Amino acid sequence: MTWDTVNDIISHHRMEPPRMRLARDGETLPLGLYASAVTTRRRTVWHRVDPARLHAQLAKGATLVLDSVDEIHRPIAAAATELERWLRTSVQVNVYASLSERPGFGLHWDDHDVVVLQLDGAKHWTIHEPTRTAPLHRDVVAPDVPTGPPVAELVLQAGDILYLPRGWWHCVSASEGTPSLHATFGLTTTTGAQLVEWVADELRSDPTFRLDLPVHGSAAEQRAHLAKLRDRIAETFADPQLVAHFIEARDGLDVKRLRPSLPFIEEVPPNPRLRARLLTTRARMDLSQDEHGTVIFRACGDEWDFDARARPLLQLLIEAGRSPVTIHELSCRSGLSLEDVASAISALVARQAATVEGAAR
């Protein structure tokens, strides 16, 4: 990701807010300050960035923000994918460009952990301790603004990496006399509150939790009903594998990075040179308890039942992650025919958990 990359993205994409925005002193600038509305002959309206006006706002201290760059820039997407595989959480990458020492956002905190990569130039960071333990996006109170001195002041140079946990206050500026370009990898949190929400959904399978509360019952009836709920919840949380089950379930819901499989919109042909890959790094596979040993494959919020013979094929796709594997290689290593491999891939493509690409050039 270079300055030329940033220029190309702005030039060749319709970067409407919030995908692209300018911020100064903690405020998002109106789009009209750096872009002009364009009405097409079909009466649709989009905004074209005016480079001269964009440059003027950046010179006045605005910071340029490109949201979700991992969706439009392959090298950044690859880095985000590896972090997702390693840390088992979703990652979004924003890029920030600053050309003056004026802060774009002022002193603030993020509701998620971040990994900051300085791409070019230098950026000055002033960091304060959290004023509330593990603050959330949906919280009961907002953290107080810190009043004491910072715990750290540092300058990131090109190639430096900074890890900043959520809740840590920070103010960032390009005060070192050089333009600054950095990427922030935002890591989705995994909290106890999310675990409780998941458990609540899972307990819907228990009739006790589907029954009406005895709203109009006596105090004794309400206590008895509450005791049943409490005992069932206590039993659930006594499971030492509960967190592992939650993480595995969340892996199966991992949001994929979109990529179609054109021109293969229905059946994938058994062409040995075609390449297939999963659109998620966190697909899960389990054996069912039935007598046939059915394989249960979970990915992208969906679930499939495969014949047990498909297990080696699915395992290869999981191990490859988002790296493409030819139909021929999948056939050889799984022991399945090209037709069987193509059929299994077709099922995943139809439900948008995998994609197929043309033969390698």
Notes on the protein architecture:
The protein has 361 residues and is α+β, with helices and mostly antiparallel strands. Helices cover 30% and strands 25% of the residues. The protein has 10 helices and 18 strands. Strand 14 (284-287) and strand 15 form a beta hairpin. Helix 8 packs across helix 9. It is globular, with a radius of gyration of 25 Å. The mean pLDDT is 91.
Topology summary:
Blueprint (H helix, E strand, L loop, with lengths): L2 H10 L7 E5 L2 E2 L6 E5 L5 E5 L1 H9 L3 E4 L7 H14 L3 E8 L14 E8 L1 E7 L23 E6 L3 E4 L4 E5 L6 E8 L4 H11 L4 H4 L8 H19 L4 H11 L22 E4 L5 E4 L7 E5 L2 E5 L4 H10 L4 E2 H8 L3 H13 L3 E4 L4
Helix pairs in contact: 8-9, 9-10
Instruction: Please give the share of residues in helix.
Output: 25-40%
What structural class do the secondary elements suggest?
A: alpha+beta
Order of helices and strands: HEEEEHEHEEEEEEEHHHHEEEEHEHHE
Tell me, rounded to a whole number, the average pLDDT.
91
Distance between the termini: 25 Å
Strand content: 25-35%
Oligomer: single chain
Which short descriptors sum up this protein?
361 residues, alpha+beta, 10 helices, 30% helix
Brief account:
The chain is of the alpha+beta class. It is built from ten helices and 18 strands.
